Every structure is written in structure tokens, then in C-alpha cells.
Amino acid sequence: MIRVAAVGDIHVDRDLAGRLRASLSRIGDEADVLLLAGDLTRHGTPDEARVVAEEVRGLPVPVVAVLGNHDHHSDAGEDVARILVDDAGVHVLEGTSVTLELPGGRLGVAGVKGFGGGFLGRSGSEFGEPEMKAFARHGRETADRLGEALRSVDAPTVVALTHYSPVDDTLVGEPQEIWAFLGNYLLAEHIDAAGAALAVHGHAHAGREKGLTAGGVRVRNVAQPVLRRPYGVYCLAAADDSGAVGVTDAAALARAPAAAGPHH
């Protein structure tokens, strides 16, 4: 069994230094890997990225992350990613994957920030004004990058890590008028095609934790305001003869206070 801890939308800045680290004090006892589902910083500055790096450096489990929209706000997304990699050894994914040898087995994680676009029957299309075509195109291209990353994984158990949601199930609670800006169904199509064991995302602060793709892949919204705990823990059982992987939700035992930002 592989124990996956995951959280997103932690929105760390200098004023919150130390709080995330305190909430991760038992991570080595409760999980085999930590996934960070974007919006790690508040404004996407290199200084904030250094604080995040300090919080997760030297943890007893590997850390895998994607960036979120907040992490790009200051047009320094590449710097944020580089600092997390260089200063803390975080595996930062963007259309890429990583394979980890964990106590419970080999795990592949494919990640991309993702983008908006909407959901089947209620989505944007590459038609009309250049701005609309660019919006829809970017959503499609980021989903395609997730598909490429998923196909690159050589592991019996695969998790898809995004910031934007692949399904609308986990957006319930958010105003429907903004769902098109919170996720994209094309992400789910690639997740289903790859037969992922689990999909993890953030971004939807007022949504709900649990959802399901059309193909039956479990989706978890791990935005911290949704979890109301430092992280969720999801236990992936070994694949059975059909290749299916069981997923069991386990509430994280840690109860240390943690920060939550006010914006998506």
C-alpha cells in the first residue's frame, strides 16, 4: 500500500513562515510521499518561494509539486519552480512526470498546472475572437501535456497531479458561473485514458473533496480550505489481477494550524 499525502492552496508568504512546517511534523509516520497541488505562494514571488522551500526542505518523504495561478502572478513562475527544486529538492512537474521508489511500491506522478476551459457541454472553444481562441487553446494544450506526462510513466500505480480541476464534481459549492475558470474536462479525458489510480487537484476553495471522472478514477480536491486539515492521506492498494488499484481515504492525524489564502 502506498500512502499519498496531498494538499494545495497553502498560500505561504513570509508572515506565515513556520506554520506549514509545524503542520507536517508527523508526515513521515502518516505518508510515503507529499503532493503539493499548486498555489504554494500568495503572490508568486521568489521570496515567497524561498519560504516554501524552507518549510519542506529535509522532510522524511519525497515532495512532488505543480504550480498554481498564484505562483505565476508575479510572472516569476520559472524562478519559483527553480527555487523549490534547487533549495529543497522538490520535484516540480509541468507536463512531466517522476517515478518514486516508495516503501509500498513504485509510484509514478504526472503533473501539470492545467487551466480553465469548462466541462463537457459547457466549455469554451477555439472559435471567434483571438482572446477566446487563445483561452481555449491554452486549456487544451495544458491538458495534452498532462496526457504526454501520463504516457511517459513506467510504474504500476499512477497519480495525476494538477492545480485546476479535471471534473466538476469537486467544484460544487463554488458559483457555477466561474466553473469554466476552475477546471477543464480535457484533463479528465487524459486521466481516464491513462488509467490513473487517483487524480489530485486544488484551486476550488469552496468546492468539495471527492469526485469521480467519467471513467471511474477517483478525484480529490485537496485545497486546504476544503480539507480543513493540514493534508489528506489517500492509500493506494496494490494493483489486482485486472490492473485496478484500490483507493482508501484516510484522514490525516496531524491537526496543527495551517494557512489558507482568500483567493482562488
Give the topology.
Blueprint: E1 2-7, H1 19-23, H2 27-30, E2 33-37, H3 46-56, E3 63-66, H4 77-88, E4 91-92, E5 96-102, E6 105-112, E7 118-119, E8 122-123, H5 130-152, E9 157-162, H6 185-194, E10 198-201, E11 210-212, E12 218-221, H7 224-227, E13 232-236, E14 247-251
Parallel strand pairs: 1-2, 2-3, 3-4, 6-9, 9-10, 10-12
Antiparallel strand pairs: 1-13, 5-6, 7-8, 11-12, 13-14
Description:
It is built from seven helices and 14 strands. It has a single domain, classed as Metallo-dependent phosphatases (Purple Acid Phosphatase, chain A, domain 2), CATH 3.60.21. Helix 3 runs parallel beside helix 4 and helix 5 (130-152) runs parallel beside helix 6 (185-194). The strands form three sheets. It has a six-stranded mixed sheet with strand order 4-3-2-1-13-14. 26% of the residues lie in helices and 24% in strands. Residues 252-263 have low confidence and may be disordered. The radius of gyration is 17 Å and the shape is globular. The longest helix has 23 residues, at 130-152. The protein is of the alpha/beta class and 264 residues long.
Q: Which segments are poorly predicted (pLDDT under 50) over 5 or more consecutive residues? A: 252-263
Helix content: 25-40%
CATH class: Alpha Beta
List the strand order in the largest sheet.
Answer: 4-3-2-1-13-14
Number of domains: 1
Query: Got a strand count?
Result: 14
Q: Describe the biggest sheet?
A: 6 strands, mixed
